[in-house]
Amino acid sequence: MIDVELLRSTPDAFRDSQRARQGDVSAVDRALEADEARRAALTRFETLRAEQKAFGKKVAQAPKDEKAALVAQVQGLAEDVKRAEAQANDAAQAFDVAVRGIQNLVLDGVPEGGEDDFTVLREVGEHPAFDFAPKDHVALGESLQLFDLERGAKVSGARFYYLTGWGARLELALLNLALDQAIGAGFTPLITPTIVNPDIMRGTGFLDSHSDEIYYLEADDQYLTGTSEVALAGYHSDEIIDLAAGPKRYAGWSTCYRREAGSHGKDTRGILRVHQFNKLEMFVYTTPDQAVAEHQRLLAWEEQMLAKVELPYRVINTAAGDLGSSAAQKFDTEAWIPTQQTYRELTSTSNCTTYQARRLGVRYRPEEGGKTTPVATLNGTLATTRWLVAILENHQQADGSVRIPEALRPYLGGIEAITPAS
RNA sequence: GGAGACGUCGCAUAGUCUGGUCGAGUGCACCACCCUGCUAAGGUGGAGUCCCGGGUUCCGGGACCGAGGGUUCAAAUCCCUCCGUCUCCGCCA
């Protein structure tokens, strides 16, 4: 949720932001009107309620024989109070709906426009030069028996798969490498719930812009999470946390579930775009003034992981229209995929400023004994199953084997390559 | 899945039967001050979160006793639904 006081004082900032996102600019004025209506209704109710309370006290103190007369006098008031309260509630709800129509205020430097309007911040590493015809990750996976797509489809349908043998081990190795890096950087590891309640899912902002991406369990009115960000953001919901000793950094390990609605026909081969995968996610609660610097740190940790697995990649500054509703700025890293001759997203790090925290009720005290204020939240990817695609394709060798980057070897019993024979 | 108990201001609890003086008591912990004088005891006071209005080291009002409804002039207290915790039984990959 946005800062309502800021909305009142500088509505133009929000109009600009909505415009940059190619979003609904009129939502700003609807929210302002709803805010005024809400406050008027609330004042009306509270005035009546104060009157009623004062009267209740009079009745309590009156001698027995006068009570009946007093009660008769005030009978109508109860009705008025109830009606005013209902009106105040309705107005508050209407305001809530209106204000939800406004996404997080984008930061300076975020490119305007849609999905294709990102800017490239840098390209790192050399594209591999093969003196043979490189195989795509599916061919490599089949010949090296790293995953089983057919049986995945048989058991669970399209976009499901089994990781098998070295494929399974490679994923665990990657995630463990990421986990160890995170722990080394001071993150607290958490293995998170992957089913969450509606208020948590709503609080993270996913029900606004990604609702058709989310698996919903109707019998239980709960959601499967598409990233541990959801459970990590909910971890401190409705809490006043202590940031005096620095930011709270969590590394969440979880399976992620995505419906991939609307992506029919896209990336149908292999494990690039799947309904279920594993991910190690960084999540940080920090003070708002530290958010931009922390965002750079998260990006640096992501790039550190990419360097460890020796992948060529680029970093992009995502355009406003491609940000989630909670994000104020987002950097993606995209690895080079040789057989596609293009870059594909491997990590994504968002600065949600105070937007998520406001919805989820996560606050801190800037000063000892002072007033509470919302924290800033940030998230970023450290490793996912998808990374296997980039690792396999970039590190394949003429004999059909895949060289294992040195950083991963300790997690794979020291092997230097996965060969057809191994 | 069945039966029962419970959910109160940081923690522990009182209050619920018998609705109003609960503006929620007490203990511990916390903060300030006083007294005392030395790794302590005692006294006084203070303290939560959120919202609205006016003022900007404040004042007034309102909400919050797990959540949401209901009864009533009035609900922590009575009724209903839901959620959670615990105990016992059943079941279990």
Question: What does this entry show, briefly?
Answer:
The protein is α+β, with helices and mostly antiparallel strands. It has two domains: 4-99, Orthogonal Bundle (Helix Hairpins); 119-418, BirA Bifunctional Protein, domain 2, CATH 3.30.930.10.
Structural class: alpha+beta
Q: What is the multimeric organization of the chains shown? A: single chain
Number of helices: 13
What profile does the largest beta sheet have? 8 strands, mixed
Commentary on this structure:
The protein has 422 residues and is α+β, with helices and mostly antiparallel strands. The protein has 2 domains: 96 residues, Orthogonal Bundle (Helix Hairpins); 300 residues, Bira Bifunctional Protein, Domain 2 (BirA Bifunctional Protein, domain 2, 2-Layer Sandwich), CATH 3.30.930. It contains 13 helices and 18 strands. The strands form 5 sheets. The protein has an 8-stranded mixed beta sheet with strand order 1-11-12-13-16-10-9-4, sandwiched between helices. A 3-stranded antiparallel beta sheet has the order 5-7-6. The longest helix is centred in the first third of the chain and has 37 residues. The model has no long low-confidence stretch (mean pLDDT 92). It binds one RNA strand of 93 nucleotides through helix 3 and helix 4.
Keywords:
422 residues, alpha+beta, Helix Hairpins, BirA Bifunctional Protein, domain 2, 2 domains, eight-stranded mixed sheet, three-stranded antiparallel sheet, 21% strand, elongated, RNA-binding
